[in-house]
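tl;dr need the bound structure. longer version: we got a ligand (adenosine-5'-triphosphate) that a collaborator sent over and nobodys looked at where it sits. i said id run it. heres the input, straight from their email, havent touched it
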Amino acid sequence: MKSRERLRIAIQRSGRLSEPTLTLLERCGLSFRDGSDKLFCFGEDEPVDLLRVRDDDIPALIAQGVCDIGIVGRNVLEEFSCANENAACKLQILRPLGFGRCRLSFALPLENEYRDAAQLRGARIATAYPNLLRRWLNERRIDAQVITLTGSVEIAPKLGTADAVCDLVQTGATLAANHLREVETVLESEAVLAAPEELPSDGRGDLIDLLLRRLDDVNRVRGTRLLLLHAARGSVEAIARVLPGTPRLTVLQMDGAPDQVMLQALCASELGWRQLEAIRRAGARELFVLPVECALA
Ligand code: ATP
Ligand code: ZN
């Protein structure tokens, strides 16, 4: 394959991962021309472009070198790796990304009791993840019949074509609507940054390093809030007591008002209304809560 100078990232074209992926890349300082519906998006800020495809195609595009890295569910990546165990190009996870969380789980019809996995012996199990499922069953020496379906896995038991399903679950609502009950987790999943085991040694490798550093700077403060407020110096202790966790505080003297301070606190979690009201009761005035976009170490 001809060497490229620009880094190319494969992302899901449209689906659950698309929007959080673009938001994350934007936070890392990457924006793209024609970002909304084109297959190929040209990066404007750095020499980094996007290929927007079906999520199932992402691992193969990386393995073939069409794209250098990709953002995809761990479930899709693992399925690809299980199906291509002997392939020359192995893939690795550079970073878990904290969104698109779900589980690949077994589910049974509500009326069926579940004791343990041994019960799946001889069962017909419908799934869109046949290779992952077979590996899990083999590791436990469970002989079952794996039925590969690409869509609507959850209706297979009702249709009588399967005894159990092995499918993605987030809240369990889809399972419940189909009279199924989640009984055992095969894989915990979230979106990950995937790459070949051997990273490019040219300028694209430097761009991957740059992206990883920025991802870490963004992730370090994910969910944190910067709290700014004015208060009388005598209230600082009372305010500190009602702040969540043990945030780092900075107290600044206000010009021309010796007993007034500005207090700055980095809180590791979001602040709810009740907490804000407690902070105000403790003496805070002019309270600002700001999301933190990144923090450079
Ligand atoms: P595509 O058209 O790209 O093939 P898709 O229908 O396979 O789309 P989505 O439903 O958008 O994919 O899911 C993409 C990924 O989102 C999944 O592979 C999984 O990692 C993650 N995900 C999170 N929660 C769920 C869920 N409840 N059901 C399915 N996938 C989920
Ligand atoms: Zn898909």
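gonna send this back to them w/ a short note. The chain has nine helices and 15 strands.
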